[in-house]
Amino acid sequence: MIIKKAEFIISNTHVAKCPQDGKPEYAFIGRSNVGKSSLINMLTGKKGLALTSSTPGKTQLINHFLINDEWYLVDLPGYGYAQRGKEGRRKIQEIIDIYLDEREDLTCLFVLLDCRHEPQEIDLDFITLLGESEIPFAIIFTKTDKISTSRLNENITHYKNTLAETWEELPPLFFTSSEQHKGKDELLNYIESINKSLKINLN
After folding, report:
1. What are the residue ranges of helices labelled H in 60-202?
2. Which residue in 23, 27, 37, 68 has its CB near the most CB atoms, within 10 A?
3. pLDDT tens digits for the chain (203 residues)?
4. Are 130 and 111 in contact (CB under 8 A)?
5. Facing residues of 28 across strands?
6. Any residues with CB less than 8 A from the CB of 53 and at least 6 apart, and which?
7. pTM of this structure
8. What is the H or E stretch that residue 103 is in?
């Protein structure tokens, strides 16, 4: 897939205010500072499309971007940012939970994980919740250029083994680097394949 057009549509705090045109949505989520905004900008080829900042936790709204007039890329708030405070975290989690529970157009949720770290409990709990809620998702490992190949393979193997303890089948896995544009084609081709299957089913 080649992204020829990517435009910001709307930001809001509730699923009821999201676009109602029935286009498929691919949402991106992860802990703060996982590199989500940089990844979105890399995928779309627009450097300033999603807000990037050296300060974690900047995304606090549901942000819709229309891609090629065909589907939505959705930038969700990051979860688990401690410096928001208890009430701040509760509000953000409520936004996320309601979107995941009620958004019928959500086609796939991409969960971003920083490949430099071993499995974190907060990520594993979130992934477990997705399984229990039967939400289709894939995992994106970010910042693969920041560690050695041997360390990357070691961490990925650890993740796979940890997930295999509770999952009979692992979700799709992608490996990305926003700086090196690694994983862009694989991710966009995956989205394109789903969109094509949706059109076939509708026909």
Report:
1. 85-102, 121-132, 149-164, 184-202
2. 27
3. 889 999 999 999 888 899 999 999 999 999 878 999 899 999 999 877 876 544 444 457 899 999 999 999 999 988 765 555 667 678 888 889 999 999 999 999 999 999 998 888 889 999 999 999 999 999 999 999 999 999 999 999 999 999 999 888 899 999 999 999 999 999 999 999 999 998 876 65
4. yes
5. 75, 110
6. 37
7. 0.90
8. none
